TrEMBL record:
Alphabetical list of PANTHER family matching this protein: HLYD FAMILY OF SECRETION PROTEINS (PTHR30469:SF15), MULTIDRUG RESISTANCE PROTEIN MDTA (PTHR30469)
A Pfam cross-reference name: Beta-barrel_RND_2
All copies of domain Multidrug resistance protein MdtA-like barrel-sandwich hybrid, residue ranges: 76-198
Family in the record: Belongs to the membrane fusion protein (MFP) (TC 8.A.1) family.
Domain Multidrug resistance protein MdtA-like alpha-helical hairpin: from-to ranges: 113-164
Superkingdom, taxonomy of origin: Bacteria
Any coiled-coil regions, as ranges: none
Domain YknX-like C-terminal permuted SH3-like: 285-350
Protein name in the entry: Efflux RND transporter periplasmic adaptor subunit
InterPro entries documented for this protein: Beta-barrel_RND_2 (IPR058792), MdtA-like_BSH (IPR058625), MdtA-like_HH (IPR058624), RND_pump_MFP (IPR006143), YknX-like_C (IPR058637)
Domain CusB-like beta-barrel: 206-275
Amino acid sequence: MKKRGIITILAVVAVLFSIAWVLKNNKKKNAETTAVVASGNSGAVAVNTEKVTKSEVNLDFSSNGTFIANQDLTLSAENSGRVTRILVDEGSRVSKGQVVARIDADLLNVDVETARANYQTAVRDLERYESSFKTGGVTQQQLDNARLNVRTSKARLSSASIKSGDANIKAPISGIVNKRFIEQGSFVNPGMQLFEIVDVSKLKLKVTANETQVVNLKVGDRVAIKSNVFPNSSFSGRVSFIAPKADNSLNFPVEVQVSNNAGNQLKAGMYGTAVFDFPKQNASLTIPRTAFVGSVNSNKIYVLEGNKAIERQVTAGRTFGSRVEILDGLKEGETVITSGQINLVDGTEVMAVK
């Protein structure tokens, strides 16, 4: 038993010794590599390069999305009653304020007559109280209560009249009846769905733009719209909304308001493409994003001078996909190092790889 314990201890010691030896050896190799890179005496570092030139910048881009209705509203009942008449059906065009259905108004009319009778009684009572108050027959409080009763009765009459008028169910917007949820003779309660009305005279195309694209957009910009379903028809729109915050995919939602044609060819739910065209840009210096050490925000690159890598601070401008505009710190004709920077320090000898 004791012999087995000694063997286990020796095995553990051997493993620890091996780990220590490997770590020491790796540290020695890293130190040697760093020294070679820093001194440049043991051969040049292979790098990729690119000559800096001015090129035209193209800001145009397109984005696919889905059309949604300008207005999509579900009309609900405001009163209880039996549907006595339906004046529209699915597919019918309606105008704002048009009567689309009627419900039984008998009970509502009874409420109006009752409220009107109560109001008239309250008015007569107030006249008597005012007359009696002059002779001291009633108190000021009784007179005030009579006046309050008149105001309350009048409000109830107005409310009952409005409800009676709601027996004629009217379309709140202009559009097309997409769905009908009721049948003639059915009984409805407040809040029950009656019709779904959709306005497609104008639509919204919901698309997205990444961070390099959204900075060039502003509300009101004109946009060309294409639809694969109607390749021979042309549509146009204007940017109506640009989200101030990116979504989970780091893209920014953008809405384009589109005017439908006379035949309302475009339907809500169809796919469309927004084509964003921008004025021609002046040529500018651009370099690959990979030329930056770390990230674009570092503004640090390496320039090839002779056979050495020279560290350079630049001022980065706009980003165009895989390329970055340079505003200052670099001249046309110079050569930048686009890969291998991890092995470089200022003054390292390099060898450009074609």
